[in-house]
């Protein structure tokens, strides 16, 4: 994926956050894409981030592995876009391989 694909992911996430959490589009502009989603701008909780996690995994047909969720890497629009990009490239875990 290139920069254009990252922007596609970011725009998809912006739409998701706007529709699911009623965050105003004015708060979801590129100038806030590095702000933590659990911070004062967006005011989401860690539990709130589960919905975008599952939705993005489904939409991009990938599994985001634990290493990408550590150290708050799944906590801003830019970092989430990078995480999706890296998870699609690495394909280290197949979602269905770990089910019993």
Radius of gyration: 13 Å
- Quote the beta fraction: under 5%
Strands, count: 0
Taking the sheet with the most strands, its summary is: none
What is the CATH domain class?
Mainly Alpha
Shape: globular
Query: How many H/I helical runs?
Result: 4
Number of domains: 1
Q: Write the element-wise H/E pattern from the N-terminal end onward.
A: HHHH
The mean pLDDT is 84
Share of residues in helices: 40-55%
Give the uncertain stretches in residue-range form: 92-96
Distance linking N and C termini:
32 Å
CATH topology: Non-ribosomal Peptide Synthetase Peptidyl Carrier Protein, Chain A
| Structure classification | mainly alpha
What is the architecture at the second tier of CATH?
Orthogonal Bundle
Describe it.
With 100 residues, the chain is an all-alpha fold. The chain contains four helices and no strands. It has helices at residues 3-21, 50-59, 66-69, 77-90. Helix 1 crosses helix 4. It starts with a helix and ends in a 10-residue tail after the last helix. Mean pLDDT is 84; it is low at 92-96.
């Amino acid at each position: 994926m290139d920069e254009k694909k990252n922007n596609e992911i970011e725009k998809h996430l912006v739409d998701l956050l706007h529709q699911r959490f009623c965050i105003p589009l004015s708060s979801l502009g590129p100038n806030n894409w590095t702000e933590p989603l659990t911070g004062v701008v967006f005011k989401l909780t860690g539990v709130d981030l589960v919905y975008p996690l599952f939705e993005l995994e489904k939409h991009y047909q990938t599994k985001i592995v634990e290493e990408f969720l550590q150290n708050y890497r799944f906590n801003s629009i830019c970092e989430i876009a990078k995480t999706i990009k890296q998870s699609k490239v690495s394909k280290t875990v197949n979602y269905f391989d770990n089910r019993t």
